[in-house]
Every structure is written in C-alpha cells, then in structure tokens.
Amino acid sequence: MAETDLPKYRVIANDLLNKIQTGVYAQNTIIPPEVELASTYQVSRPTVRQAISLLVNQGYLERRRKRGTLVKKVKIEQEFTHLIESYSEEMSSKGIYPKTNLLYFGEEKANPEVSKNLQLEVQEPVFKMVRLRYANEQPTVLVTTYVPKKRVPKLADYDFSTASLYSTLEKYQLKVTHVIRKLEVMEADETTANLLNIAANKPIFYFHTQGLTSDEQPIEYSIAEYRGDINSFVIDVQR
What we know:
Layout (H helix, E strand, L loop, with lengths): L7 H14 L12 H8 L3 H13 L3 E4 L3 E4 L4 E3 L8 H7 L4 E12 L2 H7 L6 E11 L2 E11 L16 H7 L6 E10 L2 H7 L6 E10 L5 E10 L3 E3 L6
Helix pairs in contact: 1-3, 2-3
C-alpha cells in the first residue's frame, strides 16, 4: 500500500517511528505534546492520539502520567543463537540499518585459545579482524574474528567494513554450514565499554563462535560482545 493510501494516523505513526529509529527522538526522552504534533502534522489531536496509541501498543512509546509520552528503549531481538547468516542480513531483515567499522585487520600468531578452536598448531599464522557493528547508527556488538591464513591466504584483499566474511569464505568453497556457540554474561571492560558507548562494568553477552564447513573443519573463530541493554536473543528449540 502506498503511503498516500494509508490513514492519516498511520502516516503520522510511520513518521514518528522513523524519527525514533534515526535518533531524532532519542530513547528515554519525551516526544512533543499532542497539541504540538497536531499543529506540525495539520491534523486533529484525536488523530495524533491514535498514532501514538499504535506506537505504544507496538512497544516504541510509553505514556507517563504528568510527564508525557516517553521513547522506550527497545531491545533488538537477535536470532544469532539459531541462524547462520551475516549480521547485515539479519539486521536488514528486521528493517534496521546496519553499519560496520573495521577497527583492525592484520596477521598474527595463533594463541592457545585460537589454535584450539581452529585446530591449528600454536603460533600458526591467522588473520585477525576486529569489527564494531552498528544498528541504526548505534554501536551494538564488538566482534573479534580469527581465520586460518593457510585456508584463505588472500583474505587481506577484502574490505570487511563492507564485505561479508561468510560470503567471502563461500567464494573459496568454505561455506560455514555449522556453528558451535558458547554464551557467557560478563562485565564490559573499559575499552569495550567505550566502543559500545556504555558504562564500564555493565553486563554484556559474550559469545564464542566456532564456524565449521560441511566437512566439519573449523574456518572461523569469533568472539562477539553484545550490549546487554539493547539486545535480546531468540532461542528456538524443537523436539
């Protein structure tokens, strides 16, 4: 349905939601009062009230007595725990704008933890990358990834601020078909807290991921540190 075919309250609700998602109306702040919004959108107050009610029901806004209407902190429902897809694909499927900053890319020697998870000898060369990933311009997760250099020697040719690691691995017939993940809840150290724009010692979801190819050979080992205040995780278990 085209925007022009929508009822006025839905058009207003969509515009308010866009302002919330782009930070015009920041989380934990009060949106303009109904009378001001009615004037802005050139509609009646009941129409504005209907638009606000829709966003309240959807969990984006919360009415507070004597204060007004508050922008709620909405958690991103991550399906990282039971799906194998790129971060960009997952965020885009939710209507969230993803962005990646590549903070580091280089060659290192595998330490005991990395060598164990990639089934390498200690000190074997690996590529290491550190990426800070965003959702609607908000830092959401810090990911440190290791890949065996001997399996993908030309990995340094790619710009992983835009390229997908999993799609790149597929080009070398190294598709990740199986992952093993371990979850811990930890406190953010000062460096992680600064990058994720949270206070030090705040809780973070700390995922260790071992990515395996169809022949069960590990091709990726990643440590993902998700903000605890804006992320929740879906666990889909079937019997």
